[in-house]
Amino acid sequence: MSEVKVHPVKAHIAQHALLDEAGYQSMYRQSIEDPDAFWGEQGKQIDWIRPYTKVKNTSYDPGHISIKWFEDGTLNLSANCIDRHLATRADDIAIIWEGDSPEEDKKVTYRELHEQVCRFANVLKAQGVKKGDVVSIYMPMVVEAAVAMLACTRIGAVHSVVFGGFSPDALASRIIDSRAKVVITADEGLRGGRRVALKANVDEALTNPKVDTVEKVIVYRRTGGNIAWHPHRDLWWHEATQAARPDCPPEEMNAEDPLFILYTSGSTGTPKGVLHTTGGYLVYAAMTFKYVFDYHPGDIYWCTADVGWITGHSYLIYGPLANGATTLLFEGVPNYPKTNRMAQIVDKHQVNILYTAPTAIRAFMAKGDEAVEGTSRASLRIMGSVGEPINPEAWEWYYRVIGDERCPIVDTWWQTETGGILITPLPGATDLKPGSATRPFFGVQPALVDGEGQVLQGATDGNLVILDSWPGQMRTVFGDHDRFEQTYFSTFPGTYFTGDGARRDEDGYYWITGRVDDVLNVSGHRMGTAEIESALVAHPKIAEAAVVGVPHEIKGQGIYAYVTLNAGEVPSAELHKEVKDWVRKEIGPIATPDVIHWAEGLPKTRSGKIMRRILRKIATGETDSLGDTSTLADPGVVDRLIEERSRVA
Ligand code: WTA
Hints:
By secondary structure, the protein is α/β, with parallel strands linked by helices. The protein folds into two domains: 11-440 and 449-503, ANL, N-terminal domain (Rossmann fold); 523-646, ANL, C-terminal domain (GMP Synthetase, Chain A, domain 3, 2-Layer Sandwich), CATH 3.30.300. Helix content is 30%, strand content 23%. It contains 20 helices and 31 strands. The strands form eight sheets. Strands 12-11-8-6-7-14-15-24 form an eight-stranded mixed sheet, sandwiched between helices. It has a seven-stranded mixed sheet with strand order 5-4-17-16-18-19-20, with helices on both faces. Strands 22-21-23-25-26 form a five-stranded antiparallel sheet. It starts with 10 loop residues before the first helix and ends with a helix. 52% of the residues are buried. It binds 5'-O-[(S)-ethoxy(hydroxy)phosphoryl]adenosine (WTA). 5'-O-[(S)-ethoxy(hydroxy)phosphoryl]adenosine is lined by residues 264, 309-311, 386-389, 411-416, 437, 498-500, 512, 514-515, 521, 526.
């Protein structure tokens, strides 16, 4: 390790920050020593219809995994994000929308948001959507995506947002698993000047004979592009909302009623429907937003994540709106039409808090000063990073060039499953070390364990587990509680296993080293190697495939696919393209392999298990440290793979 640079808390930040070091220490201590008292108090930050009398009721005991928070309280999430601000800040801006084209933008006040959400909630009701029904949302980054989510929460429907970049097949499998009754989409999306055929994708997904629950498709008109229309099934957003009443009383929900499902990739099988519930999720999202970004009323906040990911749920919509903040929702891509677009948006809307991903930062860094050309970014106070480990070089560049050495960077570690941020600096309290997510948030007890599950002490490397529950934790895998237990609580019994590896240094700071399972993180997008492999083997010419991650300068990880063709098939440039296009079509562009390695055979143990450790080493060229290959069924396969690699384009 080269020497670690420390950036102490800045005086100008500390002066106004919500918390200093002593504040963090005492709150953290209380949160661990007496979680009931701590969260009982923090839970009051949001509005309850019927206040809770119980706070924490959780068990990590093998066979009895059960997580409940505030279980006898009732509330409504949309009322917390909208209605409760109306008395004091109805005319404040809730959402600033910036279009794909710099010429297009609009501002929506809390009062206007209230009306839009109520109208759309009434549209859903009129279509027969009831409390507990699932609604799929497959939308571009428009205000209506947020309206659709909030409207679901208003009537107690469970939303399942599917990233607009996913293919019809990926959408279909999520609709099938969640048993969605309604799909909300747009005619087309607009990103980087290109149109995305969302409605056509929905039409195709719904031709899958296993999709048998969808009754209605509601279509928001974004581009006016040509689309097919099924009059018995499809309805226009604008027509339906015009006819709807502008008020809709919020449904009284139990704290543990399902709030949303969000699919995410694991090391095996199909994506899992991560289920979050209402009370604990909201308390945790609201509180982390406030402290991690040191939010002060009036701040303009911009999170660049898509609504299709957890960051787009917790820190684009729910966390900010629960705090009455102004959140910026950007339709496009950060380097279109020019490399300095992100910085231009910061100046245009006077953004104070910016939350983005290392992959974007590295892409800007590769362009140097072009990324900030003609901009001042003087409004920025706090900057955040999320989605993957940020390398110290990218951290320093972000700090120096985007933030002019004025803004602390909060490197926030968390997961779809955790609902909110678990390990992070706090701007007024934590000295920063580039590349480290630093210390746990309130109520979070991280630990490092060895392969046998022994908890390790002091400065060390290990598997990252969390010893006890926090309010934002997922409650189950939708429809499959066994899988929930199996995936997260069986590897190291008695703890929640994150799937990540980490190092803890002498100061107790955590450095996330990345996934220790077969999950890839490509440009901050989570993907299971198994998913990409099953897409590959679905190709009629492919016999077998194995996928591993390799370091990639911009994306963090790239996708390296070993592909064995059926007997008689011959590798060619055409087939190479065909296979890449196939995966794009099967899953979506984010899953496109970077490298295709035509392999005559794969390294397997005598019991037929593919030895990925060897494939990873060969992909990265570390062929002199392959380790023990004696258990291979055919040791000769390794030499052939190494020889083939020299021909890989
Ligand atoms: C990785 C995104 C290092 C990690 C919120 C985790 C990170 C996975 C960081 C979850 C970070 C996320 N530093 N690694 N600051 N943030 N990760 O579910 O491997 O899309 O397990 O949630 O991203 O990805 P997910």
